[in-house]
Amino acid sequence: MSVNFSEKEITKKVQGESHPLFQIYMNLYNESPDLYRTINTDGIIVVCNKSYAKNLGYSKKEVIGKSIFEHVAEQSLLALRKSFDEWKKGGTVSSMEISLMRKDGTTFPTLISANNLYDGSGKLIGSNTIIRDISELRQTERKFRSLYEGSPDLHRSINTNGIIIDCNKKYAQELGYSKEEIIGKSIFDFCSERSLEPTHKLFEEWKKTGRVPTHKSRLMRKDGTSFPVLISATSLYNEDGTLIGSNTVIKNISQIEEIERRYRSLYENSPDLYRTINKEGIILNCNKSYAEHLGYTKEEIIGKSIFEHISKEGESEMRDSFETWKKTGRILNREVRLRRKDGTTFPTLISANNLYDDSGKLIGSNTIIRDITEMYNAQKALQEKQRTIIKQYEELKKLDSAKSEFLYMTSHELRTPLVPIKSYTDMVLSGKFGSIKEEQRKILNVVKSNTDSLLRLVSDLLDAQKIELGQLKLDKKIYDLSKIITVTATNMKTIAKKQNISITTDLQENIFCSCDKTRIEQVLSNLISNAMKYTKKNGKIHVKLDSDSFNARVIVKDNGAGIQKEKLDEIFIKFYQIDSSLTRETGGIGLGLSVCKGIIENHDGKIWAESEGRDKGAEIHILLPLDSDTQHRKVGHPKASTTQA
User: Would you call 1 helix, strand, or coil by DSSP?
Assistant: First the structure.
């Protein structure tokens, strides 16, 4: 660009003459944020704008009339003089980078471009110089250089001949060279032999199009070893858009390839069936197990649709599953039957790990298929066994029901003759049929004792069956438990006295609950009688009664044989014997505590045993619920009177 103003005209305009075109020009010139100066062919500054003077730390008056060389930093003087002399000879000015010096002696980098000025005859008389402060640009370049040099990735810059004009430390170190040994060499000097041909093709394509796809390659180190890399490049252009080179980022993917090799090994050698498909259901890859299970070679499978390997009965379900997967990207543990080459089928369980492209779009899946033939057969066998067990269970229920009915009827029939035997024995002993000799009395007492034992046994059998069949009936009324316990304990004291066993009580009064008096007496008699069986002569049995806000609590405690802790829950099981040797000595068939448990639980109560072990005594605990009416009676409610049966 040139402007035909004479030196005289320039000077006049600077001195204030007006010209419409020149005035517009001067406004732009003076207000520009860039630095402007106008010089003559001697390098004297004729005009400058505000930015030029301000950036140099001068006033405009101090600048105008001075040589441009007065404002140049020492390190740029030689280059500027050479450029200035060439300009005067040929009239051409190339953009160049120089450092200017401010009034205070500090310097800053600039980029200088100039437009020549000619007089009316076409003679060169000066230039308009545009100067751009590039301090920020240099700061940015330093930051870039720091990132470039410090990057963990490999960086190199090349020209269009493939010559490396720069690289970072990581690139040099990874290849085993110094930077000096690398810069100036061709990129092909560092390619492994197998990567040379594809790299040449990509390079020629880049020179034509300016584009380099991200691709894998192998670089070769100074010691001859090679390693896999992933290469990405950004093209560089000059001001007129001509391709001049590229900045290349190279990632060492040795670890990634190692992971891929391991994955490939797992994929290929897995006992499960693996296949990789695209979104159309075409098989892109499969492992040996998949091919072998289906009876094909891998070559026969790859490229085929997954539906070619589905059994006819499962095809509809598989298509529905496939369409759902394409919409949702999910398939997990779906049971599908696959079809072999020979037409046979087998059950499988299918799950899929989705594959996505860089934009997150679903493109396919890695499918894991587990042959569940063994599990399927085991399940069928299990179902068959379950059917057999259910059938056997029903038969056992019938047998158990028949057994229960038999025991119930037998117990009832046994009881029938025992009642008159007991009655007539009592009548004979009472003297109703005349006096009897002492020897006869002893024999009749033995008969009476054994009859009583047999009646209790039959009674327990009947009660056990009623409880098991859910037929135990209770006649529940409101009773004072302390009175029931007092009566029962008193009745048992006569028998206990013969064994030199003491029975003591500690009873809280006025504890009322809804219960069957006869059944509670039966429970207490059983517990005290059981305690007497396992307590030695001169032993002690203590019965305690108290309550909290919700329950009455009864404890029957003895200092007898005790119970092992691991057997505490078992003593309430029907026919369970704590110790067969002790049982044989004391009698009984293990029904008493089972009947007690059934009676208490039918009262919505709880019963359990506590003991520190053998020979440390035992405690039987009973909880019976208190209802709201019971609470009223405790505090003297008008309904406090009770009917004792």
Answer: coil
Amino acid at residue number 291: A
DSSP string covering 148-167 = HHH-SSEEEEEETT-BEEEE
**Per-residue pLDDT reduced to its tens digit, 44-98:** 999 999 999 999 999 999 999 999 999 999 999 999 999 999 888 877 777 889 9
Q: Which two tokens stand for residue 57?
A: 């730390």
Cα 291 to Cα 299: distance, rounded to the nearest angstrom: 9
Sheet with 226-237: list strands edge to edge: 164-167, 154-159, 243-252, 226-237, 215-220
Distance of alpha carbon 208 from alpha carbon 640, whole angstroms: 112
Q: How many CA atoms lie within 13 A of 513 on its CB side?
A: 27
* The one-letter amino acid at 90: G
User: What are φ and ψ of residue 636, in 5° steps?
Assistant: 80, 30
Supply 413's token pair: 């029939």
User: Shortest CA distance to 620 belongs to which of 539, 582, 563, 536?
Assistant: 563
Tokens found for residue 612: 């520190």
Give the residue carrying structure tokens 């560092």.
190
Phi, psi of 515 (to 5 degrees): -155, 170
**Cα torsion 239, 243, 245, 247: sign:** positive
How far apart are the C-alpha atoms of 525 and 316, rounded to whole Å? 73
pLDDT digits (tens, 9 = 90+) for 552-609: 999 999 999 898 888 888 888 876 665 544 444 445 567 788 889 999 999 999 999 9
Cα 558 to the chain's mean position, in Å? 56
Instruction: Tell me the C-alpha distance between 286 and 290, whole Å.
Output: 6
